[in-house]
UniProtKB/TrEMBL annotation:
<feature type="binding site">
    <location>
        <begin position="78"/>
        <end position="79"/>
    </location>
    <ligand>
        <name>ATP</name>
    </ligand>
</feature>
<dbReference type="GO" id="GO:0006002">
    <property type="term" value="P:fructose 6-phosphate metabolic process"/>
</dbReference>
<keyword id="KW-0021">Allosteric enzyme</keyword>
<dbReference type="Pfam" id="PF00365">
    <property type="entry name" value="PFK"/>
</dbReference>
<comment type="similarity">
    <text>Belongs to the phosphofructokinase type A (PFKA) family. ATP-dependent PFK group I subfamily. Prokaryotic clade 'B1' sub-subfamily.</text>
</comment>
<dbReference type="InterPro" id="IPR012828">
    <property type="entry name" value="PFKA_ATP_prok"/>
</dbReference>
<dbReference type="InterPro" id="IPR015912">
    <property type="entry name" value="Phosphofructokinase_CS"/>
</dbReference>
<keyword id="KW-0963">Cytoplasm</keyword>
<dbReference type="GO" id="GO:0005524">
    <property type="term" value="F:ATP binding"/>
</dbReference>
<keyword id="KW-0808">Transferase</keyword>
<dbReference type="InterPro" id="IPR012003">
    <property type="entry name" value="ATP_PFK_prok-type"/>
</dbReference>
<keyword id="KW-0324">Glycolysis</keyword>
<feature type="binding site">
    <location>
        <position position="253"/>
    </location>
    <ligand>
        <name>substrate</name>
    </ligand>
</feature>
<protein>
    <recommendedName>
        <fullName>ATP-dependent 6-phosphofructokinase</fullName>
        <ecNumber>2.7.1.11</ecNumber>
    </recommendedName>
</protein>
<feature type="binding site">
    <location>
        <position position="17"/>
    </location>
    <ligand>
        <name>ATP</name>
    </ligand>
</feature>
<feature type="binding site" description="in other chain">
    <location>
        <position position="161"/>
    </location>
    <ligand>
        <name>ADP</name>
    </ligand>
</feature>
<feature type="binding site" description="in other chain">
    <location>
        <begin position="132"/>
        <end position="134"/>
    </location>
    <ligand>
        <name>substrate</name>
    </ligand>
</feature>
Length: 329
């Protein structure tokens, strides 16, 4: 959707779960806007900040030395009040008082849902920037934070493999990703997992046990199984217990990597991606776009209707699924 009016002042905020690279995106939004003569207001604590009036004027020096920082300098929070018409009305009134004509919303599908409703109710221009480690947002090949989280998971699994090999153990390792298996599939391939369990595939205990039998016949005395937190077959601990029942001689351990995957300095790929998307968000607003999300597809900046970004999801690469099975020999 496009409009013809020129934007003179924008707000930028981060919402939902933090992701490495969000600060790089904030930096790109602020500096691109200032370069083009647009004022920028930072909103602290996401939608809560819109309601409570937590605004701060931002300039080029406001975002110095943050491109390498994890987390988000604007903080993030989930807001129950913003889900009410009264809360959104208060947020809009605060935007009017500040002279904010458009919002750059950095986050995931929950953030985009709030932005879409806010825009439809009050007519404020919104543009999304996909920031989530889950990589499950439609309209972009990669989301901000995915590459860093993936490398964090890979490095942790590599370290666990050292102890697995030393003690001839089987490790069940759970990684994040919410309902998506992108982190699990890619980190599993990268670390040579004997099996990878993800919610996008119909996994079974029989297949898991069969892979253990094959590994045993090939002489493997230690194994890694990588499991997405959204796996529906069973919980990671239940899978470990069922495997122990089937193979009582196995020395089995469980490792839940957890929120370590959300933190840390963003990778080069995430810093560049965030810079491109932050720049793209401002350029999109200057072109009159609203209710869209900036994304990168086939290395090109694209804009996807925010409704599609919410309702649709990135799909798992089928080649990667086959590769994971073949290389687990």
């Amino acid at each position: 959707m496009t409009t013809n009016s020129r934007v003179k002042k924008i707000g930028v905020f981060t919402s939902g779960g933090d992701a490495p690279g969000m600060n790089a995106a904030i930096r790109a939004v602020v500096r691109t806007a200032i370069f083009h003569g647009i004022e920028v207001v930072g909103v602290r604590e996401g939608y809560n900040g819109l309601i409570e009036g937590h605004f701060t004027k931002m300039g080029p020096r406001s975002v110095s030395n943050i491109i390498n920082l994890g987390g988000t300098i604007l903080k993030s929070a989930r807001s129950m009040e913003f889900k009410t018409p009264e809360g959104r009305k208060k947020a809009f009134e605060n935007c009017q008082q500040q002279g904010i004509e458009a919002l750059v919303c950095i986050g995931g599908d929950g953030t985009f849902t709030g932005a879409q409703i806010f825009s439809e109710e009050h007519g404020i221009k919104v543009i999304g920037v996909p920031g989530t480690i889950d990589n499950d947002i439609f309209g972009t090949d990669f989301t901000i934070g995915f590459d860093t989280a993936l490398n964090t998971a890979m490095e942790a699994i590599d370290k666990i493999r050292d102890t697995a090999t030393s003690h001839s153990r089987v490790f069940f390792i759970e990684v994040m990703g919410r309902d998506a298996g992108f982190i699990a599939l890619n980190s599993g391939i990268a670390t040579g997992a004997v099996d990878i369990l993800i919610p996008e595939r119909n996994d079974s205990l029989e297949d898991l046990f069969r892979n253990f039998e094959k590994a045993k016949k090939r002489g493997k005395n230690s194994s890694i199984v990588v499991i997405a937190e959204g796996e529906t077959l069973a919980s990671t601990y239940e899978l470990a217990n069922k495997t122990k029942e089937k193979f009582p001689d196995y020395d089995i351990r469980v490792a839940i990597l957890g929120h370590i995957q959300r933190g840390g300095s963003p990778s080069c790929a995430d810093r560049v991606l965030a810079s491109r998307l932050g720049y793209g968000a401002v350029i999109g607003l200057m072109k009159g776009l609203t209710n869209v999300m900036a994304g990168i597809r086939s290395n090109q900046l694209v804009y996807t209707p925010i409704e599609d970004a919410i309702k649709k999801h990135n799909e798992i690469n089928q080649d990667l699924l086959q590769i994971s099975e073949i290389l687990a020999l």
